[in-house]
Design the sequence.
């Protein structure tokens, strides 16, 4: 099947749409539009989108992935910050998938400010996230919409590595730990540069997140995340030193660490999210 005969956008379609709208992808918003129908189908397949899913998409752009999601899901709600793109997307959906147009909703807003969505609660998040806001947007959506069970995001390869990294890895850090508060996280494939317009000068990767219960703890998520931020703010320091400001003093940090069963000489990159939760429980 080609994109022309099933409503999906091919390279010529994307460029024509962009030209008609006077749209040039901007670096400021990290915009790179997907121009390959096989790639968006692969993303939908990898995301395991089911016919009863309500999918939320962040940054739909010209609608390449949106159309592929509409083919597979029950409903799709897209969040778009760009005025021109937000205004154009419903017409693109209506023209290319008229039978599914009533299953589509658009929210014209900055995803970081969205706290509610129209229609049924979302069950999946699938998005090609602009690299400059990928992690904050992902964490905001997971925190705000607990009904999201499965997430598949396309992000810069380096960000994908950081999100999927486990304790002990050189790139394990704040995004890795916070994502694990919400979900089991893994790399789910690589995406080449040629499927985008304009072609970015970095590779992209897919990250899969499957919702799980957060760590059992009496500490709030806010307190746990504050401990995580403090631990990685000075990566080279031992936790006793790195958490001194957070705990009130190095001695108080040491007491919290010992009570949590964590060595005061350890460093943040060796700890699981459960260990950070235990430390936060013992903050003075």
Sequence:
């Amino acid at each position: 099947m080609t994109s022309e005969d099933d409503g999906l956008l091919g390279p010529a379609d994307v460029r024509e749409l962009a030209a008609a709208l006077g749209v040039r992808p901007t670096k400021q918003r990290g915009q790179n539009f997907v121009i390959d129908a096989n790639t968006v189908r692969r993303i939908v397949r990898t995301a395991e989108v089911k016919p009863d899913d309500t999918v939320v998409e962040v940054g739909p752009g010209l609608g390449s992935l949106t159309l592929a999601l509409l083919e597979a899901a029950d409903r799709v709600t897209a969040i778009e910050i760009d005025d021109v793109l937000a205004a154009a997307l419903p017409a693109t959906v209506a023209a290319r998938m008229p039978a599914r147009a009533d299953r589509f909703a658009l929210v014209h807003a900055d995803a970081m400010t969205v706290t509610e969505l129209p229609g049924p609660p979302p069950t999946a998040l699938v998005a090609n996230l602009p690299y400059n806001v990928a992690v904050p947007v992902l964490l905001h959506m997971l925190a705000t919409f607990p009904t999201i069970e499965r997430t598949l995001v396309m992000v810069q390869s380096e960000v994908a590595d950081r999100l999927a990294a486990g304790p002990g890895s050189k790139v394990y850090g704040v995004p890795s730990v916070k994502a694990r508060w919400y979900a089991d996280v893994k790399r789910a494939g690589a995406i080449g540069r040629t499927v985008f317009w304009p072609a970015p000068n970095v590779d992209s990767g897919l990250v899969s997140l499957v919702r799980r219960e957060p760590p059992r703890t009496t500490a709030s998520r806010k307190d746990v995340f504050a401990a995580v931020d403090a631990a990685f703010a000075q990566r080279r320091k031992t936790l006793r030193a790195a958490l001194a400001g957070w705990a009130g003093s190095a001695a108080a940090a040491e007491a919290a660490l010992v009570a949590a069963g964590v060595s005061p000489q350890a460093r943040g990159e060796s700890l699981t999210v459960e260990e950070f939760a235990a430390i936060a429980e013992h903050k003075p």
